Amino acid sequence: GAGVSQSPRYKVAKRGQDVALRCDPISGHVSLFWYQQALGQGPEFLTYFQNEAQLDKSGLPSDRFFAERPEGSVSTLKIQRTQQEDSAVYLCASSGLGQGLNTGELFFGEGSRLTVL
Amino acid sequence: QKEVEQNSGPLSVPEGAIASLNCTYSDRGSQSFFWYRQYSGKSPELIMSIYSNGDKEDGRFTAQLNKASQYVSLLIRDSQPSDSATYLCAVNLRGYNKLIFGAGTRLAVHP
After folding, report:
1. Using CA atoms in the order B74, B5, B54, B20, what is the torsion angle rounded to 10 degrees?
2. Mean pLDDT of the residues in chain A
3. Which chain B residues touch A48 with a CB distance below 8 Å?
4. CA–CA distance from A15 to each of A39, A54, A102, B103 (Å)?
5. B100 Cβ under 8 Å from any chain A Cβ
6. Phi, psi (5° rounding) for residue A84?
7. CA A58 to CA A100: how far, in whole Å?
8. Average pLDDT over chain B, rounded to whole?
9. Residues on chain A touching B103 (C-beta within 8 angstroms)
């Protein structure tokens, strides 16, 4: 696709429910990042993939958070037993081969806004 | 101390003025520095990158980097109401393949 696509755009979950957020990066981009953005804050790093390999998951806040990218393209962020503090916008970003982090050009999706009641 | 710090604002400037946005970072070995703009309800978009000490100009935007002081700034000349947004400073920390963002500075340009 032309840009990074995320779904759903909005998700309301009851506390304790599991949710799955999907990211479809720009075609051919090998690097994929997930960030969490709380209201009024900057994006906080969650995890990073290079192709299908999850190279950094140091930002995942608890073992309730799990991300995968099994075929090196689409990625899913799963949150189990959601809590109110999980309410945030979850941003996915991708970066192309040859650009990497040296250019810093992360292309962001529009985000998935999660509200946990 | 947070890795990347910015004043949250809001920074209010009149149309046509220069807006000055500042950012400090903690890792002296950081190599790459970026400014992203984020409109309300939208995703961040890259507007400037800078890698070496000094100034880098692109249209109405100038990024300034001082590695000795661990300080990055963004100047917006001839500010327009359409520049009203949150400006995020981002740093590629040494040895990490990810960007660390500051909390952002909200800029309001009033006619």
Report:
1. 30
2. 92
3. 97-98
4. 19, 28, 40, 27
5. yes
6. -60, -35
7. 19
8. 93
9. 40-42
Among all residues of chain B, which has the CA nearest to that of A108? Answer: B43
Tokens of B70: 């661990």
Q: Which residue of A has its CA nearest to B103?
A: A42
The shortest C-alpha distance from B56 to chain A (Å) reads 15
Say yes or no for a CB contact (<8 Å) between B97 and A109: no
Cβ atoms of residues A72 and A52 within 8 Å: yes
Q: What is the pLDDT of residues A15-58, one digit of tens each?
A: 999 999 999 999 988 899 999 999 999 999 999 999 999 999 99
| A85: three-class secondary structure by DSSP | helix
What is the phi/psi pair of residue A73, to 5°? -125, -90
β-partners of residue B86 are B38, B106
User: Which residue is it, tokens 């804050």?
Assistant: A41
Identity at B7, one-letter amino acid code? N
Chain B, nearest residue to A95 by Cα: B98
Our measurement of the distance from residue B55's CA atom to the centroid of its chain's CA atoms, rounded to an integer in Å, reads 13
Phi-psi region of B19 (alpha: psi -120 to 50; beta: other; left: phi over 0): beta
Partner residue opposite B43 with nearest CB, options A40, A56, A111: A111
| Substitution target from B8, B37, B43, B65 for chain A, most A beta carbons within 10 A | B43
A6 beta partners: A23
